[in-house]
Specification:
Blueprint (H helix, E strand, L loop, with lengths): L1 H6 L3 H26 L5 H18 L4 H21 L5 H22 L5 H8 L7 H20 L1 H9 L1 H6 L4 H23 L6 H13 L3 H26 L3 H23 L1
Helix pairs in contact: 2-7, 2-10, 2-11, 2-12, 3-4, 3-5, 3-6, 3-10, 4-5, 4-10, 6-10, 7-10, 11-12, 11-13, 12-13
């Protein structure tokens, strides 16, 4: 109780807990879709695009979020288009875009301001960098993602498991795929301040894989992935606070531990 009271006595911790838990929730829900459709590495590609864009924005004293959000949205459509192109496979398209964006960001950083505090917070994450704007954006984003899953659950289910049948049924599959890509881009851009470029994609992959090890029903996987992601986030923040370690790394390690625990549970059940 003393630890929790001291934890909640800091305003930046409260902002990080609110924004981070909502981002973790969004990432887990979208991650289930991306993992099942084998697009999970799109998160990694978009995080590199976001870093490159934010590095350029900081170099020219522009607002990082105002520049990164539209660029990452456009990049998400580009990655989706390249992934559907038979001449360029999905993993190759992601590697092409992500490595190019990361290289541009590093070059711009090195020839301008260097690796300063702002750039480091986007690269490795920092709970001190979470602002009131990030909290507001995370609340809006979480509301949109939750409404998407509640209202359009049946259509999302059809698009994931049988896209051809969904198209034949009159469901605009391209629209739903694009919507998921846009929401993923927004989640990554908002979450980069907390998790960093190198680790934000873990919030998309780990909870979904952990839930799939334990449950087989799509609905149970979605609900459990959201719960696991939020619990792992809180545990990672507490561990980071106790041992004075980077928050993003602690969150990833807790997610990794949860994944290994799910593997043990799955083996015991089988």
């Amino acid at each position: 109780m003393t630890l929790l009271s001291s934890l909640f006595s800091y305003q930046f911790i409260i902002r990080a807990l609110v924004a981070g838990s909502l981002i973790s929730l969004c990432a887990a829900l979208l991650g289930v879709i991306l993992v099942l459709k084998r697009y999970s590495m799109i998160g990694d590609g978009l995080s590199h695009v976001g870093f490159g864009t934010m590095a350029i924005a900081l170099a020219f004293n522009w607002a990082p979020l105002a520049v990164a959000i539209p660029v990452c949205v456009v990049a998400s459509f580009l990655l989706l288009r390249l992934s559907s192109d038979s001449s360029v496979k999905g993993d190759s398209a992601i590697a092409l875009v992500s490595s190019s964006a990361l290289a541009i960001g590093i070059i711009v950083t090195s020839v301008t301001s260097g690796l300063n505090t702002d750039v480091s917070s986007f690269m490795f994450g920092s709970i001190l960098a979470i602002s009131r704007t990030d909290v507001i954006l995370s609340i809006i984003l979480a509301a949109v993602v939750l409404l998407l899953f509640i209202i359009l659950y049946n259509r999302i289910f059809m698009v994931i498991f049988d896209e051809s049948f969904a198209t034949a049924s009159g469901i605009p599959t391209g629209f739903y795929n694009g919507l998921v890509s846009v929401l993923t881009a927004l989640t990554i851009v908002v979450g980069m301040r907390l998790m960093g470029t190198m680790m934000i994609s873990s919030l998309i992959v780990f909870p979904a894989l952990t839930a799939m090890r334990i449950f087989k029903s799509f609905l149970k996987v979605i609900i459990s992935a959201a719960i696991i992601s939020v619990i792992c986030f809180f545990a990672g923040i507490i561990i980071s606070f106790i041992f004075s370690c980077p928050a993003g790394a602690c969150i990833v390690v807790v997610n990794l531990a949860a994944f290994f625990a799910s593997m043990i549970v799955s083996r015991l059940r089988s």
